[in-house]
């Protein structure tokens, strides 16, 4: 990847550092409180209640950047987009596009494997009301910067929602890419090349968007089909 300088970081090292992070007191308190007061359907379940690391293929050419773990999804299961309705939608779409070996994401031992795809988030702990503070977003940014460097074959990034988009732009800049002026604005289906990486926007598959019809499965499928086709085309051009 032209824009990103390579480093000695490994994804395993970054994942370990993420999982042991206590840098944001408000988020630490909230993730633990969410685990201590689960809804009835999860009462008695063991909660991860720590920051949730990225997950996927270390050789991935596609990176997905979400918002943050769900209080009773990733914060419970310890894997991003696992055990909640957003994850159900995302993993089904990834499976249909050929990026996942199965359409289910239930828990860390369910056999899910991502192919040519890695999933991360703008913020690694569940925030109150799904609204991380600007300072919390800045604190988490270096993890995304380092993941991009470690993903040496990265060609495309799909951001799920505007916060994922807004986190990805400075991460690209920190990795040496020149951000266009005016700054590209988020929108579903918006695609822009920045420093040799293709940035693609998608509405987040949250119940707020899927239950209201703002995001349909066909629209999410189109994003990942386009990403897969883009990667295939770039691969062909590089041969």
What does this structure look like?
With 239 residues, the protein is an alpha/beta fold. It has one domain: Uracil-DNA glycosylase-like domain (Uracil-DNA Glycosylase, subunit E). Helix content is 39%, strand content 11%. The chain contains eight helices and six strands. The chain has helices at residues 11-19, 25-36, 74-77, 85-97, 134-150, 162-174, 207-210, 217-238, and strands at 55-56, 62-66, 117-121, 156-160, 191-194, 197-202. It has a six-stranded mixed β-sheet, with helices on both faces. A hairpin with a 2-residue loop joins strand 5 (191-194) and strand 6 (197-202). The longest helix has 22 residues, at 217-238. The two termini are 15 Å apart. Mean pLDDT is 95; it is low at 1-6.
Name the descriptors.
six-stranded mixed β-sheet, Uracil-DNA Glycosylase, subunit E, disordered N terminus, globular, alpha/beta, 239 residues
CATH superfamily: Uracil-DNA glycosylase-like domain
If strands are numbered along the chain, what order do they take across the biggest sheet?
1-3-2-4-6-5
Q: Supply the number of structural domains.
A: 1
Beta-strand share of residues: 5-15%
By DSSP (H or I, 4+ residues per run), the number of helices equals 8
Quaternary form: single chain
| Arithmetic mean of pLDDT | 95
Order of helices and strands: HHEEHHEHEHEEHH
Number of strands: 6
Give the uncertain stretches in residue-range form: 1-6
- The CATH topology comes to Uracil-DNA Glycosylase, subunit E
Distance between the termini: 15 Å
């Amino acid at each position: 990847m032209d824009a990103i300088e390579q480093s000695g970081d490994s994804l395993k090292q970054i994942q370990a550092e993420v999982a042991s992070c206590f840098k944001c007191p408000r988020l630490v308190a909230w993730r633990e409180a969410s685990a201590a007061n689960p809804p009835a359907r999860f009462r008695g379940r063991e909660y991860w209640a720590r920051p949730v690391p990225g997950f996927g293929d270390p050789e991935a050419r596609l990176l997905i950047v979400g918002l943050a773990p769900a209080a009773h999804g990733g914060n419970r299961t310890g894997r991003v987009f696992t055990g909640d309705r957003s994850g159900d939608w995302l993993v089904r779409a990834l499976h249909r596009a050929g990026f996942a070996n199965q359409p289910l994401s239930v828990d860390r031992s369910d056999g899910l494997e991502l192919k040519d795809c890695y999933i991360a988030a703008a913020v690694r702990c569940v925030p109150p009301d799904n609204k991380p503070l600007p300072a919390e977003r800045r604190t988490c940014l270096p993890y995304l910067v380092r993941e991009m460097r470690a993903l040496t074959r990265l060609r495309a990034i799909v951001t799920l929602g505007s916060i994922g988009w807004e986190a990805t732009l400075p991460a690209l800049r920190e990795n040496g890419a020149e951000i266009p002026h005016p700054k590209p604005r988020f929108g579903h289906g918006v695609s822009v090349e920045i420093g040799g990486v293709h940035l693609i926007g998608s509405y987040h598959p949250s119940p707020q968007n899927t239950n209201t019809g703002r995001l349909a499965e066909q629209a999410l499928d189109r994003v990942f089909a386009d990403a897969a086709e883009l990667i295939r085309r770039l691969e062909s051009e590089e041969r």
